[in-house]
Design a protein that fits this description.
Rossmann fold; 4 domains; four-stranded parallel β-sheet; 19 strands
Length: 697
């Protein structure tokens, strides 16, 4: 055969560049997409109206530290086609606004900037938007760029925080706040927009207070893929149903998990254990489970709420109270997982998919006690010695030796030492990798870093250990389809009906289970001898040996962590629209002279036509919480509401999703994100289900 002449290097690279363009067709399509605008923003102007019906409890510490913004009301952006001449001039004036990303990325952040930029330029082409580089550090160090139309065009509808990068530095001191103020004054800023999570919006509140006398406004934007920024009033009215980025991350996780469900039900030999992000809340686990209908999903908030009624009843009968009955233990949790594995295996399904939240250990009472105590010990050491605990004791043995001295009263000489001999005894029963995990260095905010602990390994090691026990007891077996057994025996020229009663505890069911007492070839032979199917000196027929082998379960797992891939994904249609309108809302709050407010969308759980832009007073969301061993004023994280429609539906349906029966698995494939398609879902399933409370069909 003849061969084509080789291309020279230059021609090859030119041809390759045509084939592999810098931007895919999907990227080009994304950049050209125009998000929908809430109708209010199609009018000439806007005004802010107070909504006094939305009330929050006023924290006394927040009132003391944030007197200038604590009495902010909820404000709604209302359309106005005309304003007074003076008001129009004020609305259209040239403005300089700064924007900063803070914390981990979340899909949609670029569209917040796009919405803010578009609205800023709409009212005055001379207005300028400055982006601080690499998060709060850029604000403190006066590192910034001017955001231009071409730059915004490049990142419209794209994932990540790549445009100006992000960082995790906290502006948590008067000195830092003053540095930030100097930077903002130098640029002549009218306002600063902080895009971040609960801690970042806490920063926004303190900066709003510090900047107030200078006239510089500060607006926060609710960002976190964990979904733990949700705002409700004192009487339960939802003002912010979910933070941006949650839907995109959940869909990214769900797509991958659905792929694993396809794989698992194809080769039928693995349990895929999927750990998803979510340190103190299980929203991502719940949404991913609703999207995929996996066989098992653990909701941490439910585990924390668990009550062992049997233990309580036993204690009551003995005239006492067993406080250990409140909250699930690791051992009990492993039993719950094993039960589902065993039940599925009985129907030939020795495989499956489970989802666990990253922070599941935080909901296990016995582990949480350890974490609280260790946090306190570490914080006290740092404060007393002015030295970092983890630098002082870099190895596990050094840390354990220090704990041992505490438990022996050599360090803490109080009447009730925080770390006692019983703690030391229980702690030492844990495997070394788990002890090392519990002693891992805390994050910047003083939180336990669950992402650095192999949670799934801890849980699954206990599961494997108990499955071995159940296997020895003859409880954990793989069911064999009756028709397969019949075919196999007939192929071996043996009577299936003759042997079935001796082999199986349910010889006539669709899936037959080898009797519990048959746990080895020796016990198999004994069962056949006892049933007069075999003489003592006879060899076991190969067909029966093969059937026994098929019933022996081999538990294999594949573990997966879904986190950074989801937070870096491109935003869904929902998040594109949501974040763009948050950017528009931020501008209109600034134009209305608001400060210390969080831009939000009311009725986010409803159809787009019902969305309403609002400003929520950040100071009213704050309360005291322990951080790094001391109380600090922060925004409370929102956890899964066990009374919500979304959880109630999950709880009702999950038994069917176990699919421990003769039917097929109930896996659901959410499919890829169709950015322009009419089939794309318009909001998270959690929001859709929860909206049914208000009568939506």
């Amino acid at each position: 055969m003849g061969s084509q002449p080789e291309m020279d290097a230059k021609a090859l690279m030119e041809a390759a560049c045509r084939v592999m363009s810098d931007d895919s067709m999907e990227t080009l399509a994304r950049r050209s997409f125009s998000p929908k605008k809430i109708d209010i923003f199609n009018h000439a102007y806007s005004v802010l109206e107070s909504r006094e019906q939305y009330q929050f409890i006023k924290d006394t510490e927040a009132e003391r530290l944030l007197p200038g913004i604590i009495n902010n009301p909820v404000q709604q952006v209302i359309s106005a086609d005309t304003l007074s001449e003076e008001a129009q001039t004020e609305f259209n004036k040239q403005r300089n606004i700064g924007v900063v990303f803070s914390g981990g990325p979340a899909p949609g952040g670029h569209n917040v900037i796009a919405g803010l930029f578009d609205e800023l330029k709409k009212y005055n082409a001379d207005s300028r938007l400055f982006g601080f580089l690499q998060g709060p550090d850029g604000l403190l160090e006066s590192r910034y760029i001017e955001i231009t139309r071409d730059l915004v065009k490049k990142y419209r509808n794209m994932g990540g925080f790549t445009m100006i990068k992000t960082g995790r530095t906290k502006i948590d001191s008067g000195e830092k706040m003053e540095k930030a103020l100097v930077t903002c004054k130098h640029l002549g800023l009218d306002a600063l927009v902080i895009i971040g999570g609960d801690d970042s919006n806490t920063n926004a509140a303190f900066l709003a207070q510090h900047f107030k006398s200078s006239g510089i406004k500060v607006i926060g934007i609710p960002k976190t893929i964990d979904g733990d920024i949700q705002v409700k009033t004192d009487d339960g009215q939802t003002l912010c149903a979910i933070s941006f980025g949650f839907h995109s991350a959940a869909r990214a996780f769900a797509r991958n998990i659905a792929n694993l469900a396809n794989d698992g039900s194809s080769d039928v030999k693995y349990w895929h254990v999927c750990k998803v992000m979510g340190r103190v809340a299980s929203h991502l686990t719940l949404e991913s489970a609703l999207q995929t209908r996996v066989n098992l999903a653990l909701i941490g908030e439910e585990l924390a709420d668990y009550i062992d009624e049997e233990r309580l009843e036993k204690a009551k009968n003995n005239g006492g109270m067993d406080y250990n009955a409140f909250g699930i233990t690791l051992r009990h949790l492993s039993r719950v997982i094993c039960d589902i594995i065993v039940r599925r295996a009985a129907f030939g399904k020795n495989y499956g998919v489970m989802i666990i939240p990253e922070g599941i250990l935080e909901f296990i009472n016995e582990i949480q006690v350890f974490i609280i105590k260790l946090n306190k010990i570490i914080a006290d050491y740092n404060a007393i010695h002015d030295l970092d605990f983890h630098r002082a004791f870099p190895g596990l043995n050094g840390k354990l030796d220090y704990l041992r001295r505490v438990s022996q009263g050599m360090i803490d000489k109080g009447k009730f030492p925080i770390w006692n001999l019983r703690d030391d005894e229980l702690f030492n029963q844990l495997p070394n990798f788990f002890k090392e995990g519990l002693l891992v260095e805390r994050d910047f905010h003083g939180n336990f870093q669950f992402s650095q602990v192999k949670t799934e390994k801890i849980v699954m090691d206990m599961v494997k250990e108990y499955l071995d026990v159940l296997k020895e007891q003859g409880v954990y077996k793989v069911g064999i389809k009756r028709t397969d057994y019949t075919s196999f025996m007939e192929a071996a020229r043996m009577d299936p009906e003759l042997y079935a009663p001796a082999l199986f505890k349910n010889p006539h069911d669709e899936y037959v289970l080898v009797k519990p007492e048959i746990i080895s070839l020796k016990t198999l032979k004994q069962a056949l001898v006892n049933s007069d199917m075999l003489d003592t000196d006879d060899e076991l027929p190969e067909a029966l040996v093969a059937i026994f082998r098929k019933s022996e379960p081999v538990f294999k797992t594949q573990t997966h962590f879904y986190g950074y891939d989801g937070r870096g994904s491109d935003p869904t249609n929902f998040d594109c629209n949501y974040t763009y309108n948050l950017g528009l809302t931020a501008f209109h709050l600034i134009a209305g002279k608001a400060t210390g407010q969080m831009a939000a969308i009311l009725n986010l759980e409803q159809d787009f036509e019902q969305w309403q832009p609002i400003g929520i007073p950040i100071a009213r969301l704050m309360h005291l919480e322990e951080r790094k061993g001391k109380l600090e004023l922060v925004i409370e994280k929102s956890i899964v509401d066990l009374n919500s429609n979304a959880f109630r539906v999950f709880k009702t349906m999950r038994e069917d999703w176990v699919a421990a029966d003769t039917g097929t698995d109930r896996f659901r494939n959410p499919g890829p994100v169709h950015f322009f398609s009419d089939t794309e879902e318009d909001r998270p399933l959690m929001l859709k289900l929860n909206s049914l409370e208000s009568g939506e069909k």
